[in-house]
Design brief:
The complex is a heterodimer. Chain A is built from 18 helices and two strands. By secondary structure, chain A is mainly alpha-helical. Chain A has one domain. The longest helix of chain A has 27 residues. Chain A starts with 5 loop residues before the first helix and ends with a helix. Chain B is mainly α. Chain B has one domain. Chain B is 72% helix and 2% strand. In chain B, helix 1 runs parallel beside helix 5, helix 2 packs parallel to helix 4 and helix 9 packs across helix 10. The chains are: A mainly alpha, B mainly alpha. Chains A and B meet through helix 7, helix 13, helix 15 and helix 18 of A and helix 4, helix 9 and helix 11 of B.
Chain lengths: 389, 308
């Protein structure tokens, strides 16, 4: 069903789902939670950016990247470098042997700000870099891999290796990056103290706003012809190629899109949490991002958001009360999602809850009238056979 | 970085670091052999491979404790019992995992990756609950202590040599099994063309289970050998998993010879560079070079000629 005006879209079935999410994030959670918990939800939402990227990249286009943490981390580090430079004024660091450089550089006997830190004095440069640096890296990786038709499993393993490389590099170059502790002690953004409750709540709403912006962008891509080509590529790559499309360029595009989204998430993460460290870059966080996406439903954008929220909430809940049980729960989640319901929560919803919708008073009838055309078929596609000629 | 050294000094540095790299080489070969079977032949990405290895290591630890306390006179031979036991334990767990999980996912390789990652989390936590978070070491019997003095500056520790011998003999055994035995022929037939293999009467499900169990069993032996040169902790396996996958992919996933060559190349490059750079930078450079070469030559070093 084609909807043209925004109002028509908002009253369609899909629009109502978006409105419900907005209601939850903008009204319900801020009313229910104190600023500390709300800040945690904001932190979870930053992972939702990466999850949306993975929905596009993995769910729609069938490219599993195990390196989303790299892009998340790069976005986060760009923001952290700006904030750190702002925090390291000559007055604030006058006890150091070289005032005016970040404290960890001083501890590592570095006496001058390295060249690649210099541009991060500028806020506008930082805002561009938050998206541009991850996208650029994704572009280089994507072009190198997809033009040579490396895909599937190999791509996943190589992106994982890149996640490992970046983590080792960050930890090894302690003087330039803050090492294993990361970049800590971030206080102000353009003179505005980001540690107060008020600032944290404001940042939460900024995060929600940007999340919806990104959701709409991703939704636009998904509904455009581009999105259909991505899905076609996932299911029958060779047929798309034989129809005259440049498969590699589409893959590079969607990989860069996912990287950019993860970068935005990383920057917001730094702002809300107040530090950035290599533990958000490496192999484990990257794979966890895949779980957010898989649990929510790998082909559903909203599913990705709910997946990120639920898994992280469960993680905090478990680690507060039974820290030793969390790895079991997480492992079982992985296995369960893959074996029992590969389409995640979104798939379960469509299968079991959607048929019940029409029993709802008033709205049920209305929703029933607007049954969506079956979207992309369940993704459990068979990538091996797709590669065979 | 070479400028500060004379050429004779450089030669001896290379020789010294080369021998030091051999123990890393052995670990790579041992882990990669199991993975080359599971990933290279079956196309299953087993992210829990490191945990199967650690299972073998803990089995060895328990066996040596058993011998030390109850039969000290047989302690010198305990490693041989332990290796067989490690093979059986890891292989049995592998067969169970194949039955419960992997066989449902043969057509979805990316999903096996996620499921086995989940398995690895569960196993790691299980090790942590049972054996504690601290690393455990195995006491070496007397005959494994000591070293050969090859020249003044090159010493070969006997335990390292022993591990290398194990690694190479396992590689040889795997080669004979896969390429020179009837069973290996069946495995390769199933890999190449499943419906045809079924049509000529091969029990493909059985072959799959046995192959997966064999790969896991070899990982167990790898773990057993690993205890002779290092201590074992719940997450020791994870430290090697990315490297091992790179070794297998870099060598060309379906070629055992390629796997050995790439294990040799990667371990030697890393060990030599460690002398000149810090350990982490050596690792970064090695991995970057490997990833770079893979981007230029995605099929790996020794590729089968396949039309694409």
């Amino acid at each position: 069903m084609k909807t043209n005006s925004p109002l028509q879209w908002l009253t369609s079935r899909e629009g109502i789902y978006y409105l419900l999410l907005a209601l939850l994030l903008v009204v319900v959670l801020p009313l229910l939670l104190d600023p500390f918990r709300l800040n945690m939800v904001g932190k979870y939402l930053t992972y939702a950016f990466a999850a949306i990227g993975l929905v596009m990249c993995w769910g729609k286009a069938g490219i599993l990247s195990l390196g989303q943490g790299v892009f998340f981390g790069l976005g986060g580090y760009c923001m952290a470098m700006f904030l750190k430079l702002e925090a390291s004024t000559p007055e604030a660091t006058k006890n150091q042997s070289t005032p005016g450089i970040p404290d960890f550089m001083d501890w590592n006997q570095i006496t001058e700000l390295p060249g690649f830190w210099q541009p991060f004095h500028s806020f506008s440069f930082t805002l561009i870099a938050v998206i541009a640096v991850p996208v650029l890296l994704a572009f280089i990786i994507g072009v190198a891999m997809f033009k040579r038709r490396v895909g599937g499993v190999y791509f996943a393993i190589i992106t994982q290796a890149i996640a490992a490389i970046l983590t080792i590099l960050i930890i090894g170059q302690q003087g330039l990056t803050g090492g294993v502790n990361g970049i800590t002690d971030l206080q102000t953004l353009m003179g505005w103290n980001i540690r107060t409750d008020m600032a944290k709540t404001t940042l939460y709403f900024v995060c929600v706003g940007l999340l919806f912006l990104c959701l709409l962008v991703a939704r636009h891509v998904q509904n455009a012809k581009l999105g259909r080509i991505l899905v076609a590529m996932r299911d029958q790559e060779n047929r798309v190629r034989f129809s005259g499309y440049d498969v590699a360029s589409f893959k590079v595009f969607v990989f860069c899109l996912a990287a950019g989204l993860a970068g935005i998430g990383g920057a917001l993460f730094t702002l809300q949490v107040g530090f950035m460290s290599p533990s958000f870059v490496g192999i484990v966080p990257s794979i966890e991002m895949v779980v957010f996406c898989a649990l929510g439903g790998r082909y559903s954008l909203l599913g990705g958001v709910y997946g990120a929220l639920l898994v992280n909430a469960a993680k905090s809940g478990f680690s507060e009360s039974f820290p030793e049980l969390w790895p079991y729960a997480m492992g079982a989640l992985f296995i369960g999602v893959v074996l029992a319901f590969p389409n995640g929560l979104a798939g379960l919803y469509e299968r079991y809850i959607m048929p019940l919708e029409k029993r709802l008073p008033v709205i049920g009838k209305y929703l029933d009238k607007d049954k969506p055309a079956p979207q992309a078929p369940p993704v459990v596609s068979d990538q091996l056979s797709a590669e065979k000629p | 970085m070479f400028a500060d050294y004379s050429s004779t000094e450089l030669m001896s540095i290379f020789a010294m670091q080369g021998f030091a790299g051999l123990s890393l080489f052995s670990v790579f070969v041992l882990m990669a052999m199991g993975l080359a079977i599971i990933f290279g032949q079956m196309g299953v990405i087993n992210m829990a491979h490191g945990e199967f290895m650690i299972l073998g290591a803990y089995t060895t630890y328990l066996t040596s404790q058993f011998f030390q306390n109850l039969m000290p006179e047989l302690f010198a031979a305990s490693f041989f019992f332990a290796m067989v036991l490690a093979f059986l334990v890891s292989g049995a767990l592998g067969a169970f995992v194949e039955w419960a999980m992997v066989r449902h996912l043969y057509r979805r390789p990316l999903d096996t990756l996620l499921a086995t990652w989940g398995l690895s989390l569960i196993l790691q936590q299980a090790y942590r609950s049972i054996f504690g978070a601290r690393e455990v070491g195995v006491d070496l019997p007397d005959w494994m202590m000591g070293a050969f003095n090859v020249t003044d500056f090159v010493q070969l520790p006997i335990n390292g040599l022993f591990v290398m011998v194990i690694a190479l003999s396992i590689a040889l055994a795997v080669y004979l099994l896969m390429y020179r035995s009837g069973w290996g022929k069946k495995v390769r037939a199933v890999v190449q063309n499943r419906p045809m293999a079924e049509a000529v009467g091969i029990n493909t499900a059985g072959v799959d289970r046995a192959t997966f169990a064999l790969g896991c069993g070899i990982a167990g032996v790898a773990g057993s050998a690993f205890t002779m040169i290092g201590s074992t902790g719940p997450s020791s396996g994870q430290a090697y998993i990315v490297d091992t996958f790179l070794v297998v992919v870099f060598g060309g996933a379906q070629s055992l010879v390629g796997t050995i060559i790439s294990a040799f190349g990667i371990s030697q490059a890393q060990s030599t560079m460690e002398f000149f750079l810090s350990g982490s930078m050596a690792k970064v450079l090695t991995l970057l070079v490997v990833v770079g070469i893979l981007m230029l030559r995605p099929e790996g070093l020794m590729a089968l000629k396949v039309r694409r």
